Amino acid sequence: MRYRNSGKSLREIGEELGATHALSGSVYWDRDADTSVVRVNAELVRLSDGIDLWADSYERTLDRIFAIQNEIAEEVTQKLMVTVSVQNRYANVPQAILTPMTLPSR
User: Fold this and answer.
1) The sheet that has 37-46: what strands, in order across it?
2) Is the dihedral angle over the CA atoms 26, 49, 78, 14 positive or is it negative?
3) Its pTM surpasses 0.70
4) Contact 77, 51 (CB under 8 A)
5) Which of 60, 56, 50 is nearest to 74 (CA)?
6) What are phi and psi of 15, to 5 degrees?
7) I need a surface site. Which of 18, 23, 29, 60 has the fewest CB within 10 A?
C-alpha cells in the first residue's frame, strides 16, 4: 500500500516500478445478505498511454472468492499474451536447488 495516498498517477507509479501495465480494482463485500456476496471490479491499464485493455466485474458468494482470483488471472494473462514455461519460471534459481523433486510435472 506504498502508493495508496501518494497522489501519484498510475503512469508515475509504473515508471518508478519499471512496469508497463497495471491491474487495479476494488472489492465490495455485502455482509448483510444471507450468504456473503463479494463483488470484484478489475481493470488492466497500459501505462504508456493510459488505455484500458480490459475491465470486468465479478460477483460471487464469499466461498467462491478464489474462483474470482483465478478468472482474473486467466483474463489478464490472455490480454497480455503471456506464456510462462517451466524453464523460464526457474531461470534464476541456482541449479543446485533444482532437483527433480522441485520441478513441477508437465
Assistant:
1) 21-30, 37-46, 51-61
2) negative
3) no
4) no
5) 56
6) -65, -45
7) 18
Place of cell 487495479: 24
Q: How far apart are CA 42 and CA 68, in angstroms?
A: 10
Question: What are 72-85's pLDDT values in tens digits?
Answer: 888 888 888 765 55
Write out the DSSP string of the chain: -TTTTS---HHHHHHHHT-SEEEEEEEEEE-SSSS-EEEEEEEEEETTTTEEEEEEEEEEEGGGHHHHHHHHHHHHHHHHT----HHHHTTTS-TTT--TTTSPP-
pLDDT at 40 over 60: yes
> Do residues 40 and 27 make contact, with C-beta atoms less than 8 angstroms apart?
yes
CA pair distance 64, 38, nearest whole angstrom: 9
